[in-house]
């Protein structure tokens, strides 16, 4: 993992335009959203397939892809994939807690990739592709701990290693920078495009509220 001192310097402003609305859901990518909307950030390898997985979930208001968890301000994609910004490819999930829950979304997260892999998912290798969850509320933090505790023994019993997912608050992870226009809802724009998302076949045995 690159250090803050080694990271690329970046820039003060976003160096490219981004769309204002979600290409599938039609909702604002950066708000404003309905009162009570909550936000969770997840990373599970290439963000193209991960984003599609979440925009399909009931209760999700909008999703976007971007870079977070690192040091370089306002990075380009080409900078991020070198590993020299410290960021991971992440999905921002804004959701209505009256229609779904952090627990329901985290169940999808755990089951949709291999969280035992360190700094990779399949053929995508490097710190950019690390598994991560960054929470924004205390309830989300508790849901992260609860679902991890339920899922990890099942994962180990199936022959996988321990969970290697980076778990911390979004505040600690640092700013979330939206990725370039062509990355947003990529698999809607390019239906036969690369996905790279693959789960372990292990079920996360948690009670799902509101799903």
From TrEMBL:
UniProt EC number: 1.8.4.11
Reactions catalysed: L-methionyl-[protein] + [thioredoxin]-disulfide + H2O = L-methionyl-(S)-S-oxide-[protein] + [thioredoxin]-dithiol; [thioredoxin]-disulfide + L-methionine + H2O = L-methionine (S)-S-oxide + [thioredoxin]-dithiol
UniProt keyword annotations, A-Z: Oxidoreductase
Boundaries of every Peptide methionine sulphoxide reductase MsrA domain copy: 40-195
Gene Ontology CC: cytoplasm
Active-site residue list: 46
Tree of life domain: Bacteria
Any one Gene Ontology BP term: cellular response to oxidative stress
Pfam family, one: PMSR
Family matches, as Gene3D superfamilies: Peptide methionine sulphoxide reductase MsrA (3.30.1060.10)
Role, per record: Has an important function as a repair enzyme for proteins that have been inactivated by oxidation. Catalyzes the reversible oxidation-reduction of methionine sulfoxide in proteins to methionine.
Family according to the record: Belongs to the MsrA Met sulfoxide reductase family.
Protein name: Peptide methionine sulfoxide reductase MsrA
Organism field: Quadrisphaera setariae
Organism phylogeny: Bacteria, Bacillati, Actinomycetota, Actinomycetes, Kineosporiales
Gene of this entry: msrA
């Amino acid at each position: 993992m690159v250090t803050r001192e080694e990271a690329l310097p970046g820039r003060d402003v976003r160096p490219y335009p981004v769309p204002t609305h979600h290409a599938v859901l039609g909702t604002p990518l950066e708000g404003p959203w309905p009162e009570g909307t909550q936000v969770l950030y997840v990373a599970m390898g290439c963000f193209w397939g991960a984003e599609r997985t979440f925009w399909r979930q009931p209760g999700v208001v909008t999703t976007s892809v971007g870079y977070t968890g690192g040091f370089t301000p306002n990075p380009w994609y080409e900078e991020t994939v070198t590993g020299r910004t410290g960021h991971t490819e992440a999905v921002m999930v804004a959701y209505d807690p009256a229609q779904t829950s952090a627990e329901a979304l985290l169940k999808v997260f755990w089951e949709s990739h291999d969280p035992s892999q360190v700094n990779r998912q399949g053929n995508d290798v490097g710190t950019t592709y690390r598994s991560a969850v960054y929470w924004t509320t205390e309830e989300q933090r508790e849901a992260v701990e609860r679902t991890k505790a339920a899922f990890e023994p099942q994962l180990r019993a199936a022959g996988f290693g321990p969970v290697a997912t980076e778990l911390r608050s979004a505040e600690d992870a640092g700013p979330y920078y939206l990725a370039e226009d062509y990355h947003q809802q990529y698999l809607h724009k390019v239906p036969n495009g690369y996905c790279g998302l693959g789960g372990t076949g292990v079920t996360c045995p948690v009670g799902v509220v509101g799903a």
